[in-house]
Amino acid sequence: MNRSPRPALVLAVACAVLALGVTACAGGGGGGTGGGRSGGGTPGPLMTPAQALQKVDALLDEVTSGVQPALRYRDAWPEATVQYSKGLDEHSLGYAKASRQRHVMTKVAPAKYGALLDAVRNTWQAKGYRVEAGPANLQALLATTAEGHGVSITIHPAGNIDIGATVSPIPVPEGQDPFGTPTPQPTTAGGAPDVMPTYDDPYWSV
């Protein structure tokens, strides 16, 4: 479980933008609460972790199904990030966000980066999402759905590509992973997550 003191919209993308989400509603009396150290207003009805994960995966599927030829990918284990208020009186807002990263395992040549980003942008715009550019130092796109959920795609300088989605609110996890027992993820010799693409494609890799 992660703790994020910032409720701003940025996406959870490994090594770079890993905290994407919609702007959270600050604490208050409205809405239901999801437990935690201090109750606070949630930005909407609480979803169960299973419901949130289903929504996250559907948002990721939208992206990958909109890219042709199809890409190979591997999903990271989902994460729950408790939301906290800003300022000196920092406290739990009573809910968490659910997110997951989808690592692209197909090698994408730099000459095809523009085509990939265009395909993703077109998919989101066709859905009516609000799309914006990511950080200036990265080739990335962020988008917000009509429901206020966040999605992103980031092309990292090393050539690995991450697609991410974040939805909320879910209950604050109480000492256990709300998504079950994490499955082991591939790692490098140094123990870091291995997210580098390994598959060649006659279109994307040249």
Give helix % range. 10-25%
- The Cα radius of gyration reads 17 Å
Mean pLDDT reading: 83
What percentage of the residues does DSSP assign to strands (E)?
15-25%
Distance between the termini: 39 Å
* Number of beta-strand segments: 8
* Structural classification: alpha+beta
Low-confidence stretches: 2-40
**Biggest beta sheet summary:** 8 strands, mixed
Shape: globular
Describe the structure.
The chain is α+β, with helices and mostly antiparallel strands. Helices cover 15% and strands 25% of the residues. The protein contains two helices and eight strands. The chain has helices at residues 49-65, 113-126; strands at 2-4, 73-75, 79-84, 92-104, 130-133, 139-144, 150-155, 161-170. Strands 1, 2, 3, 4, 5, 6, 7 and 8 form an eight-stranded mixed beta sheet that branches. Residues 2-40 have low confidence and may be disordered.
Layout: helices, strands, pairs:
Layout: E1 2-4, H1 49-65, E2 73-75, E3 79-84, E4 92-104, H2 113-126, E5 130-133, E6 139-144, E7 150-155, E8 161-170
Parallel strand pairs: 1-3
Antiparallel strand pairs: 2-4, 3-4, 4-8, 5-6, 6-7, 7-8
Give a short synopsis of this structure.
The chain has 206 residues and is of the alpha+beta class. The chain has helices at 49-65, 113-126; strands at 2-4, 73-75, 79-84, 92-104, 130-133, 139-144, 150-155, 161-170.
